[in-house]
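Q: What would this chain look like folded?
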Amino acid sequence: MSRAEAADMPEDGAPKTPARLRRRASRLLSQLTMRSDRLINEGLAQIDARKWHYAVLASLQEYGPGSQAELSRRSGIYRSDMVAVLNELAERDLVERAPDPGDRRRNIITISAQGRRHLRRLDKVLDDLHDELLAPLSPTERDQLVQLLTRLLDHHTRTS
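A: My prediction, written as structure tokens:
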């Protein structure tokens, strides 16, 4: 438990956060994001993986080969960070780089057979981590939560 989490729990175990803060969706999302990131990052670290590995492999699996710039747009990883992520994946033989026949200055990245197997393993690990994260919710509530979060994100992505 972090210092901030401990400060929120008095000895009787009841939250001492003011009710007006517990009613603010922005604060709840922020608090849950911190806990979710920690859970996912620690869980993936146990198998020597990172969430950016998953994002790139999932993008390659779903949309096919792409340039570093395309992968950056698809995955939300900054272009400046993409090279390091791709280097890690290439060192593990999870992706393959080849010169783009249309523009020799850039590479086309493709998921390898080993990358597809690794992605399936990551899917299983993430499924288990999400079960832990969403444990208090029923399957229907989990689906509703994802739909609502998707709707919010899509709205704010379109308007920004």
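DSSP finds eight helices and two strands in the chain.
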